[in-house]
Amino acid sequence: MDVAKGKIISIAPKPSLCMTIGATLIVATQILVSLVTYPFLPSIVPSHWNAIGQIDGYAPKVLLAILWPLVSAASYSFLILMMSISPRLGFQRPEKTQAITQQLSLATLLFLLVIQLTATAIALGFHIDITFIISLGLSILLIFTGNYMGKLRRNYWAGIRTPWTIASDVVWERTHRFASWLFVGTGLVGIAMSFVPIAHIWAMIALFIVVSVIPALYSYKIYRQQSFRERTQC
Prior knowledge:
mainly alpha
């Protein structure tokens, strides 16, 4: 919480009820998928695939049944916790940023549901290229994220959080406008590469390095420029 003129300012509003219901429905669907398919799964199921989609690891079926709902529930709960306890940055109202963050979180949960369905189908004997599904899904998720990236305001829980973006609204906004285009462009390239056999996973790894490193470097560049302007104006 912030303290100003002797008054305690609330850290953040409560999470959106609609978004929480949506997340609960997705996790409930994952649990239902696990319960319905569990009796039909072999005792040992595929748990890992190499870069060309070949199975190279196995695990007990109980792990497949429990892991995906658990990961989804834990990740969403952690996000809600972070939004609830993080202090407000600047004077902007955090409601819009929280709403966008929850939308992005729901998209991520849907992606995890798709991966669970794919892994379960493979365990049941269906022939599906999971690397294609992952590559295509992540690319779509990048595009979706990019469309909202420029609308995020400075916060501790979502976005390009570097020491330089956290320190300045100007650096944050310019970095996220740049990252928005970068994410969309990277996602479009990723979709195209998803249809190239063998190469798509390696391409996605390279693209994710790009969207992770370049915005961070860009934020440092903008911070240096902003600091120089402020010094010269004094």
